[in-house]
Amino acid sequence: MNGQRISRRSFLEVGGGATAVSLALGLSAGPGLAQARATVRAAGQKMPNGVELPESPPARRAADSVGFAIIGLGDYALKQMMPRFAQSKRAHIAALVSGNADKLGQVGDAYGIPRNARYSYDDFGKIASDRRIDAVYVVLPSGLHAEWAVRAFAAGKHVLCEKPMALSSAECERMIAVGRRAGRKLMIAYRSHFEPHNRKAMELMSQGAAGRVRMLHSVQSYRMGPTTPRENWRASRALAGGGPLEDLGIYGLQAALYLTGEMPETVSATVFRPEGDPRFAEIYASVASQLRFPSGAMAQLATSYDSAGANFAEVRGTSGTLIMDPATNYSGQKMRLEGRDGRAFDMGDPTLQFAGQLDHFANAIRDNSPIRTPGEMGLRDLRLIEAIYASAAANRAIRLNGDGSMRS
Ligand code: NAD
Fold it and tell me: Of 163, 258, 284, 305, which is the active-site residue?
């Protein structure tokens, strides 16, 4: 593979996402937005508050363990994912990439990462010749996923990419195409697919444990503290798209699909953005959507950055109701079935989802086993997100094709 060639072409392709994002959001692509989207850059940030670094570096479990380079040493990487490599059977942290040299040194020392396996954003391209690195785990702000996934493919590495896969379906399509051309694998880090309660819920619903699914109701929300787009990438359209839907609501959207086992045929949605609130100068505060499935099942999904915390899913069938609350948290999942076969389910430790996800991708790389949450799933979800925004902008229902793209 010629890394340079793929890299140049792919950058041009990814750059085209700006207009797609603004159009999908139903907002006019003013010069400010287009410019902001084109100029978003990976930039070092300070160490997040409350990070506990390991006292001793975790040991590798398997001789054929897959080496990951972690890019984006932020809250999620440092507090959730990186500590969980210790529980993985076949994945280890081989390298780090950061724009903050102090943080890189501190985290590198704690995790036992050799100095010559600590990269900056500027020298990222050098990972191409680092044989210790098999895969890159992209944990950057969402608006940077596409660019850095493409760079990782150009360096000949496999990619595990955080959700949302990117900020537009066009970016997702390019990521998939570039990965294919490079002959490398792409997985989206949809951890709930590896969480025991969510796995059981999929099984129960597919077996008709609540009868035929009729209604699904899901909310993901929290109240964002005072901030501005400059201070917080989650408030910046260029880095976060429309906001809570891409960040939190995507879990409810995912659940609606994996619990009904169907793709929606129609979507209608509405959005809210208060005037004069700096948190919502560029993103929506709340998004509510309704999906109708071919079976007649209906899903009502709501997500917000401006209401008290919630993370639940309820599936009402013809003979019972499955209640998951919390549904897709890092831990503490609770699940019960009400109705004829009513009971509570304790499926074991939800935090196994983190290592489970890592081992799943490691197995796919080593054994060529199928990926449960491939790039195509991330693309499907971005198409649906675009349809939700398009529906809100047009104030009408949007009919969908089977792949989630808009029909009308
Ligand atoms: P964060 O702000 O805590 O960390 C982001 C990190 O990216 C920063 O610390 C910095 O190291 C790096 N970065 C590079 N360029 C940056 C820039 N221009 N602006 C800001 N940071 C920049 O964010 P996070 O909560 O760790 O989220 C990172 C990604 O992980 C997002 O895509 C998010 O959606 C995803 N995430 C997933 C889950 C999950 O449960 N799967 C949970 C949280 C976050």
Answer: 163
Please give the Cα distance from 212 to 348 (Å, whole number). 27
State which ligand 1 atom lies nearest to the alpha carbon of 78.
Answer: 26
Do 141 and 277 lie in one domain? The reply is: no
Q: For residue 60, what pLDDT is reported?
A: 78
User: What CA dihedral angle connects 72, 78, 81 and 86, to 10 degrees?
Assistant: 130
Q: Measure Cα distances from 382 to 53, 170, 359 in Å.
A: 34, 9, 25
Domain of 180 in residue numbering reads as 13-191
Domain boundary among 127, 160, 191: 191
Residue 79 to residue 10: CA distance in whole angstroms: 32
Q: Is the model's pLDDT at 289 over the cut of 70? A: yes
Which pTM does this prediction carry? 0.93
What are the residues whose beta carbons fall under 8 Å from the beta carbon of 392, sequence distance 6 or more? 26, 269, 270, 271, 287
| Pair (240, 183) in one structural domain | no
Residue in the block written with tokens 């896969």: 165
Q: Evaluate if residue 3 carries a pLDDT over 90.
A: no
